[in-house]
Design a protein that fits this description.
Length: 421
């Protein structure tokens, strides 16, 4: 029996509708992709300013020499008419006395050597420019979102004494630090041993830094931070890199790493924030370290940063902050890692050298010559130095003092081990 229902016509109609649906879905998908691409390009243009000169670093980084007046800081509405301060009015008293201190610890062994940045091998930036590490498309795409690129997650500050174990478990951040609190602080200094710790997961990091903190540990925390870090998520490799960070609202909407937002004003043409440090300390071999000083200029009120004994890098304008517009209430020095392992397991991401403090010089990582700046703008040894770590079987800290190193501490550890499952 034949059917006069026009089956082939129905099939053609269905196929046509299906085809139109696929085309519209494809168009919508392309539209979504093009919007994402537009947003990505907009952010890349904001990060990457037109360079006067470009330098290819041996590690794959591209360093753009950008005119000092075109740097990202001046995207900030409050900085539109800002006159760049090329040098601080005052350095902390005692800053240059420490070159007289012996660089060699009582334990003997190798004296630390000079540290530089890898890109210096292929050139330098001209006068009136600053070196900026170029942000690549893949850098931004590694972030959880375009808007979160260059920012820390919330709750990444060690909170001594009143640490809540639930907070520790939720944030996944672990620390081994020395700290002072209970006074007004106007800066901090440290010489930090430089290593290249192994990172287990790409979304984890390991850093060694100093924190200049103001306010409570709630939503209003002010923080200025600087040191070295290994962060595959942020940089796309396992190199040890110089970094800075700031926030005025506990990492919620303000602040960023390095120059990835408006805020920090760089004045130095020799050091690139986020660029690789070289060489790195080796176990039972040559040791390398960097010195970082952060202090508040008594006249202008800006927070300045110096690298080594002579390289003034730039400043955070005081208007960026609420509490730090006056002074800091806590200073911290030490290491931090991210543990992303679930169900109470522990990462094998290393802190410092990956060795526990008792290993000592040439094996464990150290901070030495740690100091604070008082209200008279004088560098002093910290009083009432405390230590803090969430899990000392994973990462630990041990303080000491002597004539050569002033106040110092060894810190770090391997993470996962038989006593830290």
């Amino acid at each position: 029996m034949g059917c006069g229902c026009g089956g082939s016509g129905t099939v053609v109609l269905v196929l046509s509708i299906w085809g139109l649906l696929l085309i519209s879905l494809s168009s919508a998908s392309r539209l979504g992709v093009s919007r994402q691409k537009l947003e990505l390009n907009r952010h890349l243009n904001r990060f990457n300013k037109p360079p006067v000169k470009t330098i290819q670093s041996p590690d794959g980084d591209i360093i753009d020499c950008v005119h000092i007046s075109k740097q990202p800081a001046f995207d900030h509405p409050f900085l539109k008419d800002h006159k760049i301060q090329m040098r601080p009015n005052f350095h902390p008293e005692g800053l240059f006395d420490e070159t007289k201190l012996s660089e060699k610890p009582k334990e003997g062994s190798n004296a630390p050597n000079t540290v530089t940045q890898l890109w210096h091998a292929n050139g330098k930036c001209p006068k009136d420019t600053i070196p900026i590490r170029r942000t690549k498309e893949e850098d931004v795409l590694r972030a959880s979102s375009v808007k979160r690129y260059g920012r820390k997650k919330h709750r990444s500050i060690p909170k001594p004494r009143s640490a809540d174990p639930d907070i520790i478990n939720q944030s996944g951040h672990q620390h081994a630090i020395a700290y002072v609190e209970g006074d007004k602080y106007y800066g901090a200094k440290a010489t930090i041993n430089v290593w290249e710790p192994k990172i287990q997961q790409p979304n984890e990091f390991s850093l060694s830094q100093l924190w200049v903190l103001g306010g409570s540990f709630g939503q209003d925390l002010n923080s200025i931070e600087a040191g070295w870090q290994v962060s595959p998520d942020l940089y796309g490799d396992n190199n040890t890199r110089l970094f800075t960070y700031w926030t005025s609202d506990a990492y919620q909407a303000t602040g960023c790493y390095n120059l990835l937002c408006s805020g920090f004003i760089q004045v130095n043409d020799n050091i690139a924030m986020g660029a690789s440090i070289s060489p790195i300390s080796e176990y039972s071999n040559s040791q390398y370290d960097i010195s970082i000083t952060i202090w508040k200029d008594p006249k202008e009120g800006h927070w300045w940063m110096q690298f080594g004994n002579e390289l003034v890098l730039g400043y955070w304008p005081s208007f960026l902050f609420s509490y730090l517009a006056d002074s800091a209430s806590m200073i911290e020095w030490g290491g931090e890692v991210v543990n992303s392992e679930p169900n109470g397991q522990h990462t094998s991401t290393q802190m410092g050298s990956g060795q526990f403090p008792e290993q000592g010089f040439g094996k464990a990582s150290y901070f030495k010559n740690i100091q604070v700046v008082d209200s008279s703008n004088i560098l002093k040894t910290p009083k009432g130095l405390g230590t803090y770590t969430e899990q000392s079987n994973c990462y630990d800290v041990q303080t000491g003092s002597n004539d050569n190193w002033g106040h110092y501490f060894y810190y770090g550890g391997p993470g996962k081990n038989p006593n830290c499952p």
